[in-house]
Amino acid sequence: MSPETVVLISLWLIATLFGLIYLFLRWNFNYWSYFKVNGPKPDIYFGNLPSAVTKKRHVIYDIWNIYDVYKHTDYFVGIFKNRTPQLMILNPQMAKQIYVKDFKHFYDNEASTMVDEKVDFLFGNNPFSSSGEKWKQRRSEIVPGLTLNRIKAMFPITLEICKRMNVFIEGQIKNPSLEGTNAKDLTSRFMADIIADCIMGIQSDSFRDSNSPLLVLREKMFQYSPVYSIIVGLLPVIHKLKKMRFITKEYETYFVGLMETAINIRKAGTETKVRCDFLNYMLQLQQKKNLTNMEVCAHSMTFLLDGFETVSSILAHTLLMLARYPLIQQKLRQEITDKLGKNRDFGIIHELPYLNACIHESLRIFPVDFASTKICTEPIELINKNGTTFKVPRGMIVIIPKYPIMMDDEYYPDACEFQPERFLEDNGGIKQYFNKGLYWCYGDGPRICVTFGFVQIKAALVEILTKFKVKPNPKTRNDYTFDPTYFLARLKGGIFLDFEAI
C-alpha cells in the first residue's frame, strides 16, 4: 500500500470519526420540535446552558435570557443541558402547581439521581438529596427536633453568641483594615458557633479561634467535578453507573469523629436530661429507633449543609443591602429600638414586621439558590399557553427559574431596587407573592425548607444594628454580579463592610 493511500485512508477515518461525533452530539436536538414545544436553538457542544461548563458567568444568566425571551409566549419551553432535553417552566402559577398540587408527579429533586449513600453517606441521607419514602422518613425524623419551642429554648445561647460577635466587630473597628470586615467570614464564624452549640452541643468560640470545630476543613467540605458534569450531560446513563461524591472523604472522617466525641460527652454527663437542644432530641430518637451513630451524624450534617453556608450567606447579603440603603437601615433600627429597647424577647424579635420584610427582600435579590430542578416521578400532561399539550415523561428534569421570576419587573416593579415595603402586611404581605408562585426563597409544598436559621438571622441583625451602623467598603462591588464558580448565590469578589459604633 502506497504512502498516499495510507494518508487518504487515515484522513477518511478521521473525517468519519468526526462525522460520527458530530451526529452523536446533535442527533437528539430534534426532540422538542418533534413534540411541538418551543425553545431556543442549542449549541452543539453546550446545549442551552453554556455557562454551566465555561463558567464565564453564572449559569442563572443563561436561564434568565431564555425566560425573558419566551415568558410572554409560553408557559414552558424545551431546552438542552448539553444533549439532555429538560423542560423549563416559565409561568409562576404552573411552577407553584408543580410544587404543591402536582407534587406526587415531581416528588424528587435532581440531586437524588446524583448521589448514592454507599458512596457519600452523609449527603446521601440529606432530605434534599433523598428520594421517595426515604425523603419522607428523613424529614419526619428531623422536623420535630426543631419545633418553635425547642428553638426558643436555645435562644439564650444564640444571644450569647451574638454578644461575642459584637465584641469581634468592636475589635475590627479598633484595628481597621482598608478593605473593611469580610462579611461572609463574620457570618460564617457566627453560624459555626450556632451549629456547634445548638445542634451538636459543642462549646466553640470561632470569633477568637479560627480553628474552632466547624471552621476546620470548611474549605475542604465539598468536591465538585466539572468533567463529571459534562460527561453526564452528554451521556446521562453515567448517573446510573457512577455516582458523584459531594462531601469529601476527608471532611466526612473529621465530622464523624467530631460528632462521636460530642455524643460520648453528652451520654457520659447528666446534661442530656436537661438541655433541650437538637443533639438531645437526636439521642432520644437514636434510642427510640435504634439509629447508628453514623445515622445521627447524617442528621446533624443536614443542618451543617442546610444551615452553615445558606444562613451565613443570607445574613451577609442582608447586611450588604442594609449598608447600601442607609435610610432603610435606620428605619429598621428604629423599629428595633421602639419595639424591643433593651429587651430581647424571642416572640417580639420573631414577629418584627420590618425586620422580616428586610430579610424577605434581601432573599429575593440574593436567594439561596437560583433555580430548582425537579424530577418527573409520574408522567403528567401540561398544557402550554397556545393550548398544545406535552406529556412529561418519567425521569425528565423540570427547571423552575426562581430568580428570573423574582427579578421580573412585571411582578416586582423596580425589581433591582431594595424595597422591603413590598412585604409589609399593609401592602398585602409576603403571602400575596407566595400564593401566586412569585416568591421562591425557601421552596414550597411538602419539601419547603425548615426555618431554624431565620431566628438566628433575626437575632444577629437586632444585635448588630443596635450597636453599629453598617456601610459598604469600597472594595465591595455595587451591582448584583454573581460568582460563576459557586453553586449558591454569592456576590462576585466578596462582601466587605465598614462598621461604625453608635
From TrEMBL:
Its domain of life? Answer: Eukaryota
Give the function comment from the record: May be involved in the metabolism of insect hormones and in the breakdown of synthetic insecticides.
**InterPro entries the UniProt entry points to:** Cyt_P450, Cyt_P450_E_grp-II, Cyt_P450_sf, Insect_CytP450_Detox
Query: Gene3D superfamilies from the xrefs?
Result: Cytochrome P450
The species is Stomoxys calcitrans (Stable fly)
Q: Enumerate the transmembrane spans.
A: 6-25
Say which family it is in: Belongs to the cytochrome P450 family.
Q: What is this protein called?
A: Cytochrome P450
Q: Which CDD domains match?
A: CYP6-like
Q: Which cofactor does it need?
A: heme
Membrane topology category: Peripheral membrane protein
**Which Gene Ontology terms of cellular component type are present?**
endoplasmic reticulum membrane
**Residues that bind heme:** 449
Q: Which SUPFAM superfamilies match?
A: Cytochrome P450 (SSF48264)
Q: Name one GO molecular function term.
A: oxidoreductase activity, acting on paired donors, with incorporation or reduction of molecular oxygen
Gene name, Swiss-Prot/TrEMBL: 106089986
Entry keyword set: Endoplasmic reticulum, Heme, Iron, Membrane, Metal-binding, Microsome, Monooxygenase, Oxidoreductase, Transmembrane, Transmembrane helix
Compartments, record wording: Endoplasmic reticulum membrane; Microsome membrane
